[in-house]
Amino acid sequence: MAGRAVVACLVAAVVAFVALAVAGYTRAGTAVALGLVLGSVNGALAERALGAGVSPRLSSIPRLAVLTVLAIGIGLMLGTAYAWLVVLGVAAAQLILVAVAAKALLNR
């Protein structure tokens, strides 16, 4: 399931980057795309942790903390005006992960 979500996030990242770059907002497109890529990693890491038998309580907080720090750090490297766009990309990736999971559940 995480594989489909990662692919969907990568496609969304390319679409967001191209659309914003064509509109003249290359740095904003980069910020959203990087957020989508970073957010897609969260789903893969969560699935791996569950498959390894690690408690969701023990793995969720550190994983989300690291991803949050990375998102804010990437945003600050792009410029403070773009940090929120990286976080927006991560949030969009989470919505994609939820949509893929919901579709998988409905197809059972």
Written overview of the protein:
By secondary structure, the chain is an all-alpha fold. The chain has one domain (2-106). It has 4 helices and no strands. The protein has helices at residues 2-22, 26-51, 56-78, 83-106. The protein is flat. The model has no long low-confidence stretch (mean pLDDT 90).
Structure characteristics:
108 residues, mainly alpha, 87% helix
Mean pLDDT: 90
**What is the strand content?**
under 5%
Total individual domains = 1
Low-pLDDT stretches are: none
Q: Which value, in Å, is the CA radius of gyration?
A: 14 Å
In DSSP terms (H or I, runs of 4 or more residues), the helix count works out at: 4
Order of helices and strands: HHHH
Proportion of residues in helical segments? over 70%
Biggest sheet descriptor: none
| CA-CA gap between termini | 13 Å
Structure class? mainly alpha
Total beta strands: 0
Described by the principal axes of the CA atoms, the overall outline is flat
SSE map:
Layout: H1 2-22, H2 26-51, H3 56-78, H4 83-106
Summarize the structure.
This protein is an all-alpha fold.
